[in-house]
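Exercise 4. Each item below gives a protein and its sequence. For each, produce the structure-token representation.

Item: Polysaccharide biosynthesis related protein (Saccharolobus solfataricus).
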Amino acid sequence: MNPIKNALKNLSVTTTNVIIALIFFVITAKISSPAFFGKVAIVQLLEIVTSTFFYFIPGQIITREISYLYAKKEITKEVVGKFLSFPFLVLPIFLILLIFPDYVKLAIPYLFLYLLNGVMTAVMIGMDMFTESAITGNFFLVIRWGIAIIAVLYHNIYLFVKIWTLGGILSVSMNYAFISKKVGLVLPTPDFAFLFRHFREGLPVYLSSFAGFLSSQGDRVTTAYLLGSYYLGIYQFSALVAGVPSMILGALGGVLLPTASFYKALGKDEKKMSSLSFIFLSLLTFLTVIISIPIGEIIIIHFFPNYKEGLEVFVLLLISATLPFPIGSLTNFIVAFKRNLRPFLILSILNGSLVLLTSYLLIPRIGIMGGAISQVIVATISSLFIIFYSIRTSVFSTGRKEIILLFLIPVVGIYEAIDPPFLDFLLILLILLVFKLFKIITEEDVKIIEGFLPHGLKFVSKILSKLT
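Answer:
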């Protein structure tokens, strides 16, 4: 299992998403109102609700278990079929959406397909099927953002939902074909003892996601409740643009869980894996944040002038979503190395409570900026907790290099929040100078990375060597 090649395959899906979604939102902003965009945001919010509340066996647990079995060559179609059965068991729960507006009712089949597709993807990446996952992901995104423009032209939210449902049907069909080709014809077969065992094991993660929904989406829910769909549209648009950098990094970091699980099953050193990932993801994150903020501001000002009201919100949301990424990536190793996950439930409850409280207090006073400040608070608390717990469970160690990087994270965040004009280039030079002077990256690290690099990217190792 090659993490760099797999990360590039994931990145292809993210790139497609960014490009096609940008075209979609340019057209939507030109020909529709923030109120229509608010309805699209509600459908997207329902996706998050589905993956949070109905994903009773978390994808992390599925991927980890499949990766362990795949590394030991013990994967069978029966095991895959058991995991694929649980979305069908929770299908009746979707009927609760019948109490909502008609376009939400119409979205029920799509949301079920969204859940089933998520389980399939978790299984596929556990079996190192990143190529097949990328094919399906790119195909679905063309329908999701490309063909869906037709619905925007007609200002028809119902047609919009139908197009997404068609994309879900085709995506699930393709993934099913890929999985069956890999392990044999798979039939969803409920095994309640099997499912309950994994549900119980993943319960802290599930409940953490449940509470984490409040911390990640509570600001949107509060904005919709207090300010209405117009400001929800502006806030959600700012959040979507701000989420692009973390989405790109997430594509690279998305390979960590299956890769760590795979090599853990083969007996590789745990701390070495987590430390090396933290160092390189920190470098990527710093550069991404510094470059993305001015680019995002230019895009909003020139292409989406109706949403300039959310410009300051965009900056804070980008910082809170992207800058903690190297720290957040450590959770993949905590799951992969089978550490106790129960403390994350306490953290999620705390975060959820804080974001609801701060949003409710701040949004009526300072508008949508209050929601962004809530996210900064939650990101800070989560990062401190993950660092502490990773060290305590021996997943991560803090040597001189790691301490320097942990110190740089808030420095970069404060700098970008203040945003001195025309000085981003100097900050990039400062980051590179720190890596060089303190030898954050060693020659041994470069050799390990070089071993995973495809032939066309061998030049990356030469660039990294300049920092050793």
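Check: The chain has two domains: 1-190, 192-437.
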